[in-house]
Structures are given as structure tokens and as C-alpha cells.
């Protein structure tokens, strides 16, 4: 067995090893393990498996081992051989989740000082309620008294980092995990097991399992390692307490010989056997060389170890040198992927930062005025259809079309027949049919109750005063016109309310978009914008009422040409329908709407009564409806657009700025208070910027490293 220290500090290999472990130390100090998978070694085992003794033998320092002070948080140990001749030194720092290392101890130059600083550091990690400085001067007794503090955690995933410069050591880095417990409550057992699994389930982790030679079959640590690494590709077994095998334990000796000779329980990285000092041997504070000599003497004098002296698998020096080489090789192979991962993570963080609202870089007054200006410009873009997204316009068009259909449904349903209910719906003139096909779906327009000759005749009679014979009273036409005009306020109000709704929703969306970054500003301006909406809605409502009032008597128009053309069209149509009622589909017990109408060749020709007055009134009223309909379906939407949407969009900026009270003595402070950013967004920005800075530092370290 090679019992020397294998000190090759002057060799090229030692230089490269020192550089690569220094790089890993720097990356971990930056908190890189929260971003990328840096290969590492994790040491696990039961509380009585010799794990602490192994850590002491590898690091050359003493770790807390008295009752009640077992490892209760991960301890990361990094050993680096200095590039120049220097003395031994050590420093202890704290690393909380996602954070860089936080210096804790001074630079220690005596190994005897390490134990108390490790206890202080572990207590600081387990006491997140207190500042780490609280524990830097505490004595052993004070630290022990804190174990009964209910605020002190039993275990933690935060790390105590121990950085050692050892001229006589070998470059290595590993993390010592809390020992697996059995004689604790179930929650505590599960907590420690979960902590161990968190580390060893990482495929970039080499698992070192400490196994007492006299208790191979009952090791929970080995079962966890097998679950995390079923093929045994990254697990190393370290057999401790080989001197615990009595002379009669020949079966156990044979088992271990078979394992070490790779005949059973095979692991790709194999097993090592280490003989560690007992309490009496530690009490005399032996040197590293003394301990190596004791171990060598033991292996030479005891079977089956004596048959394995040249295997390179016995003793701490062989173990350290080999696992250092293994870890160095794995880290070297991982460097290209680490660079790729850091680049990908950095790009992701930059994208997330860019997706956040812009940070305020100007004074509060300028910022708020700029945001109000952009808000109002955006609102104008919606109202006037200038934005790329035309949804506001599309929604408005749908509402105005529904209004158009509703007005069309108020058209007087004249039927120039004595008994109009005996017939199905009247077909309008061909020109009207073609226009309707272009404007409406088949089921859009549903006219009101039929108005026949008898009803029109009665209206004429009721309206007749001292007129001479053969004069149709204008009052009759006014009464029939009033019937459909009186129906228009309802669809007009429904149209207005629907536009108010989409305007209100648009204002909410734009308010959140432009001011949502600052909750106080959004809340304040939301109130002002709502108040303005109420004012403009009242103004628009009055303009709507005025527009409808213009349609009431006296009925007036100047579109005489269109009226005359429509009048002649309907007059001819009504006369033709009166003379040929068979063009209607009869409703009778022997006929249904699906039957074919009676043809002209077999239908009887009815007598022609004196009904010109009624038909002329029908045509006159229907023609006026057409003119008024064409007018109102444009006037109402234009009134709403101009006096509600456009007026509010055009004037809102000045109104909002006026309400800010910029002339007040306290305006600067008030506006600054309004720009208090959403704490969630603010905290996220700080986190992302911190992460970005960390990743950039990691990238620089990786890119500058040459191997």
C-alpha cells in the first residue's frame, strides 16, 4: 500500500487540479449551484457509521462530535493546496439558499480554533431569526444552551462552507450531509432522509457511503444510494471500522474480500477501506503521518486486508487521491455543458427582466404625465381605430349592427288586405329584398303585428276633421309614423349601454396596462377616470335623447328624391298585392306555409274596392320610415361616437392632469408617493437583477478558465 501523502504540488497535474478546484470553490461561493449542476461529492451515512471520523481524516480538522452537536446542516469542505509555500489556514462562511457565501469566521491559522467556529456557524444556520453576528463570540456553553431554544431549527438545508488551504493536503471538494437518524420521531427521520435524497438524487453528484465493516446489511444510507443510483455508476463505498471485525467474524471478512475484489455488490467506482482513529488515539492529537502509519500497520497485520495491500483501495491517502482524480475528471468533462447552461439561464433571466414594466428613471411628475399621455393616446387609438388591435372598433360595429336590425324591426308591417291575419308575411318589393339580403340574415328582422286596410281606414276616420271629401288627413300619417318612432328609444338605449360597457372595459384594461405597475397611482387614476366616464356618459346620454327628439313631430326631411322613389315603389307594390292576394300563402285548414301558392290562372279575381286612400297612406308612411330609418341608423351611432367615445378620448388627458393638482405645495411628494411600485414587481426585479449579476460573474469565471 502506498502510505505516502502523494504530494505532487509541483507537478503540472497538481497545478491543474488546484486550478479546477479553485474554480469550483469560486462558483459555489457565488451561489452557482442554485443555477447549474456543478459536479460534487456528497458523503452520507448513519450517525454511527464513522462518517465524522472520515471527514476529519480527509480534511485534517476536528468536527463537533459530542452528544447533541451532530451535523445538523450540510457542511461543504473545499481543500486547496496553495500555489506558493504558505502555512495552513481555514475560513468558515455561510451559504443560504440561492445566495452567495457570507463570510462568518476570520482567517483561522490554528486547527484548534476550527471546532468552536463550526459550532457557531451551525448554530447561526439553525437560527434564521437572528443575525449571524450574534453567534460569533459565543462560548461552548452559550451555544449549548441555545439547543433548547424553540426557535432553533432541528435541521437546515443551508450550508456551512469550510475552505481550507493545506500545503500538505490534496485538492478536493465534498459536502458532508447530516447523519441518517433512527432513534428520533418520524418527522425528524423523514426530514433528514429528505435532505440526503435532495443531494444524492442530483445526477451530477458522486455519492460516498460510509459503511461500518460490522454492519454491512443494515445500512439505510446504502439503500438510499441504490435508489438514487440504481446502476451504481456514481456511488463509492467506504468501509469504516475494519478493526471492529472480531477474529471469529470469518464470514464477514470473506464477504468484504469478495466485494473489494468486485465479485459481489459491484460499484463502478468501487470501494475503499479506511482505518480511522478511535477516541484514545485522537486524544493524543496524532499527526497525519502517525495516523497513516497506524492504519498501514493494521492492514498489514490483519486478513483479509493484508491480501489487498497493492489494490490501491486501502487507507485514507489512496482514497483521497483517487476520489480527487475522479471528481476532477467529471468536472473537466462537465465544463462545456456548464458554460451552455449558464448562457441559457442568463438569456432566460434577461428575457424575464425585459418582460417587466420599465423601471422609473425620471422624476415623478414627468413619469406620471408621460404615462397619462400614453394612456390617452392609446385610448384614442382604440376609439379612432388607429391601433393595430381593432377589437374596440369590431365590438362597436357589432353593437351598431344590432341597433340597425332593431330599428328595421320597427318598420310598419302593412298588408293591403281586409283580413291580413289570414295570410303569411308580405314579401317586400324586389329592390327591398335585395337590400335586405345585403344587410341582414334571414332571421334578423322580425316585424311587428300586421296592419291591414281596416286598421288604416280606422286611423284615417279617427283623424278626419273638417276636411272636404277626397282629402286624406295628414294627422292619420302622423299617428302611424309616431307608432314606429316611439319604439326607437329602447333599442337606442340598449345600443348606448352596450357601448358604455365596452368603453368601460377598455378603460379598465388601459388603466391596468399603463398604471398597473404602481398600485397607488392606478387606484388614484382609476377613481378619476371612472368619474370622467360618469360625466361623459351623462353628456352622451343627453345627446342621445336630443338626437331621438329630432325624429319626433313635426316630421321633416329634405331627401325628397329618395322619399318619392320609395313612395312610388311601395304604392305600386301594395296595389299589386291587393289585386293579387293569391301571392300570399293562405292560412287555412287545408293549406300550410309549405304549400305551393295558388297560381294566377286558377285564382278568382276579386273586385276592386275604393281603397286608394288606405294604400296611399300605407305607401306614404312606409316611404317615410325608409327615409327616417336610413337617417337614424347613422345618427345614433355617430352621436354616441362623437359625444361619448371621441369627446372622452380627446379631452381626458387635460381633465386627468388638472385633477393631479400640480400647482400644490405638496404635489412633488404626492406624486412620488403615487409611484410606489407594486412590491411583487419590485421584489421580482431585484431578484432577477441579482440573479443576472450572479450568472454574469459565473459566466466570466467559466469563460476565463482554461484547462
TrEMBL record:
Transmembrane residue ranges: none
InterPro entries cross-referenced by the UniProt entry: Dynamin, Dynamin_GTPase, Dynamin_N, Dynamin_stalk, G_DYNAMIN_dom, GED, GED_dom, P-loop_NTPase
UniProt entry tagged with the keyword Kinase: no
Domain Dynamin-type G: 35-336
Domain annotation GED: ranges: 614-707
Record carries keyword Nucleotide-binding: yes
Keywords, in A-Z order: GTP-binding, Nucleotide-binding
GO molecular function: GTP binding; GTPase activity; microtubule binding
Domain of life: Eukaryota
Entry GO terms, CC: membrane; microtubule; mitochondrion
PANTHER family: DYNAMIN, DYNAMIN RELATED PROTEIN 1, ISOFORM A
Protein's UniProt name: P-loop containing nucleoside triphosphate hydrolase protein
Organism: Rhodonia placenta
